[in-house]
Amino acid sequence: MNYKLIFIFSLFFNQLFSKDWINPSFEKCNYSYVYAPGLSSTETQLAKYCPKFIASTGELVTCTRGVETIQSNVSGCIFAEVNLRINKDTFSLWKQLNYALVGLKHKQFGINIQTKPDSINSLSGHYVNLFNLNVGQDNDINIYKAKVGEHLKKQKIDKDSKIILYGISRGSATVFNYFALHDSDNVAAVVCEGIFDSLSNVAYHGNLLAKLKIKALNNIKITKFKSDGICPLTCANKINKNKPMALITSLADEVVPFKCTLNLYKKLRKSGHRKVHLLILKTSTHNVYGIGSEKEIYQNFMHAFYKNYGLPYIEEFANKGQKTFNKTQPDLNFVDTLLA
């Protein structure tokens, strides 16, 4: 894989198709992103936040229904439960069903993938190995750590270049835990959408289906998940309090209840973190934060967040999102009323 060529193409597409991003840093240092997807998802999920990018498979991925909160100089992480390998000779009915479902999701979210006929791996479809599920714990953290290292090397990032860590659901838990354990001078900010504090609290605050899923994960010892393993709640005190962090949740999230994100925000604020922000959407379900009816609120908030902390942003969106941003550090008494 010619990563240098991929990087050049990503910069080209960023300039050609995106709105004008402003880099406000005095030194004009380079900014880029390392993205971590949700459980059983691939880099295609990134398309909801980055309209066009070149994936690690070399494929061009586009999205017509999402937001623009990530520039295309981004690397996406593929976790161990996901298999992108194309091997049509050994396709089972299970693999074919997975491919069909993935294709339907792509169509639903307006995602298009320009596949490469000679490629061994493709984002056009994938299947999941449940045995490798780890849900943001040590295995996932190590994979994300390797991706960050690969990203830094690929883009020849020096000590003055900055990366923004961006995660969704399981990916956000992975990003959070990685940041707590492996923070570096290169990390400029952290974005965690749909993040849980612990899976036990997901079960406690969630619906019956959530309770059954977590119970199965704990009791059926076939995955890499450990019931006593690391989670964001247990490592929140290790988070660098001097770096900005955005937590995004929704009152309508049926997979990761909003109270789980609020618990994490509360713990960070109690630990003395003054740069953590909490965006609470109202109607967005777990899979549509950046693609549903509140996507403009999400997008505008993110650009206001970027602008206020001296990170690259789009002026139009940042101006629209400033009022929302100003309300994203609720006092703990208000948080307690929501948790009650």
Can you describe this structure?
The structure is a single chain. The chain has 340 residues and is of the alpha/beta class. It has helices at 3-17, 93-108, 138-154, 170-182, 199-205, 208-219, 232-235, 258-270, 295-308, 315-326, 332-339, and strands spanning 31-36, 52-54, 60-63, 74-76, 82-83, 111-114, 127-128, 162-168, 187-193, 245-250, 276-281. The strands form three sheets. It has a six-stranded parallel beta sheet, sandwiched between helices. Helix 5 (199-205) runs antiparallel to helix 6. The protein is globular and about 55 Å long.
- Determine the fraction of residues in helical runs and give it as a percent range: 25-40%
Poorly predicted runs of 5 or more residues: 13-17
β-strand number: 11
Encode the helix/strand succession as letters: HEEEEEHEEHEHEHHHEHEHHH
Strand order of the largest sheet: 4-1-8-9-10-11
| Global structural class | alpha/beta
Number of helices: 11
Overall pLDDT level:
88
CATH top level class name? Alpha Beta
Structure at a glance:
With 340 residues, this protein is an alpha/beta fold. The chain has helices spanning 3-17, 93-108, 138-154, 170-182, 199-205, 208-219, 232-235, 258-270, 295-308, 315-326, 332-339, and strands spanning 31-36, 52-54, 60-63, 74-76, 82-83, 111-114, 127-128, 162-168, 187-193, 245-250, 276-281. Helix 3 packs across helix 4 and helix 5 (199-205) packs antiparallel against helix 6.
